[in-house]
Design goal:
The protein has about 375 residues and is α/β, with parallel strands linked by helices. It is built from 10 helices and 17 strands. It folds into 2 domains: about 150 residues, Glucose Oxidase, domain 1, CATH 3.50.30; about 220 residues, Rossmann fold. The chain has a 10-stranded mixed β-sheet, with helices on both faces. It is globular, with a radius of gyration of 21 Å.
């Protein structure tokens, strides 16, 4: 009877709990907040979603890596999540689109992963105690300084008060015209745009920009720190506020004044997603709160209050808008059917709205695309 292989990776929680497994991807060590994601597909999109900056992702679905990776599925140039934790080690990929193995892709981009972990036990721990601070190490020789790992986990500052949008935003403005993927031609350019949109990049996913282009938008992307004057210099028909990572209150220090100027000085349609939703809420006078373990997955039911329609959505957020803090004149439009938390707002009598979930991520698969069409229609009406 063969003995179990020697562990080559270790995950240490700040409370001293240890998880051993087999490492893959890059070698080394990282510290982060640990969350879990319940999606059954899309691990590459999750790892490259800028909203995961400062986090290690535990995948509750065991078959991670079996479709390999392809550049077409990157949401940004490189993985942004610090690392990944999986139940089973990735097998050789089996998919006609795959151009690289997951382990090789992670290694080439400096991201650590651990397999062979009891992810059910780990997920229960996250749900019970909240998203813990952790340190993860991968050493092919299996040599770990456990005391140093636990100390590193305890020394991690956490995401509260942390502005990560500045770390993942674009360094300069650029144009975007690529539309959503469609068979058989793949990604085609938008050749007949109807509306000029400025997208403020707090950590924008590429597929959001594609959905805007597919809705008839000529998109110019600006850095997170763009001022009101920067935005208006492009003479937009509407302004989009993107997703992103970190504490919304920290990013709001510079983002909120710009949004408030937009609302006070113009009648432009405004649409926000995820962190952009939280930025809009803060600009309108609401508050945000840190969640226990957040919402991360592609199976989250959200109800649109006005119609009663239930959408199956993709979510990735550790902070939420406090619905009890919404001021007069701001309507709650969507709620989570998991916990009743806020998932959307709009201003009364103005084309200004936002949602917490990710309508571009296609879990429904097209339950929420109407939001991009609604944004386009509001610009056409204006």
């Amino acid at each position: 009877m063969s003995s179990a292989p020697k562990p080559t990776a270790c995950l240490a929680l700040a409370d001293g709990t240890l998880f051993y497994g087999q490492g893959f991807g890059a070698t080394g060590q990282c510290t982060a907040e640990l969350c879990f994601n319940t999606a059954m597909t899309g691990y590459q999109e999750i790892m490259t979603d800028p909203s995961y900056a400062g986090q290690i992702v535990t995948f509750t679905f065991p078959h991670i890596g079996n479709t390999g990776v392809t550049p077409e599925d990157d949401e940004t140039a490189d993985p942004v999540a610090e690392g990944m934790v999986v139940k089973w080690m990735p097998t050789q990929s089996s998919n006609w689109r795959a151009v690289q193995e997951l382990s090789d892709w992670l290694a080439s981009r400096g991201r650590i992963a651990i397999g062979g972990v009891d992810t059910r036990r780990l997920t229960r721990a996250i749900r019970a105690q909240g998203a813990p601070h952790v340190a993860m190490a991968h050493d092919p020789e299996g040599n770990f300084d456990i005391e140093a790992l636990v100390a590193a986990a305890r020394g991690f500052s956490g995401l509260e008060g942390l502005d990560l949008a500045k770390e993942v935003t674009c360094s300069q403005s650029y144009r975007w015209d690529e539309m959503r993927w469609a068979w058989p031609d793949g990604y085609k350019p938008q050749t007949n745009p109807q509306h000029k949109v400025v997208a403020v990049d707090y950590g924008a996913k590429r597929n959001i920009l594609r959905c805007l282009a597919s809705a008839g938008c000529d998109v110019t992307v600006l850095p997170a720190t763009a001022t009101f004057e920067d935005v208006m210099a492009h003479k937009p028909d509407g302004v989009f506020l993107s997703n992103g990572p970190g504490d919304p209150a920290a990013t709001g220090a510079y983002a909120v004044p710009m949004i408030q100027s937009l609302l006070d000085k113009t009648e432009l349609p405004v649409f926000g997603i995820c962190l952009g939703h939280q930025m809009l809420a803060l600009a309108l006078g609401a508050k945000t709160i840190k969640m226990n373990h957040g919402h991360h997955g592609a199976n989250h039911p959200v109800k649109e209050n006005s119609s009663g329609k239930v959408e199956i959505t993709s979510m990735n957020h550790g902070f939420a808008v406090d619905s009890q803090s919404l001021p007069e004149g701001v309507v709650e439009t969507h709620i989570s059917l998991f916990d009743g938390s806020n998932c959307g707002i709009r201003m009364e009598n103005r084309p200004v709205f936002s949602v917490q979930h990710h309508p571009e991520a296609s879990p429904g698969p097209q339950d929420s695309f109407y939001l991009f069409e609604r944004f386009a229609a509001s610009m056409a009406a204006a």
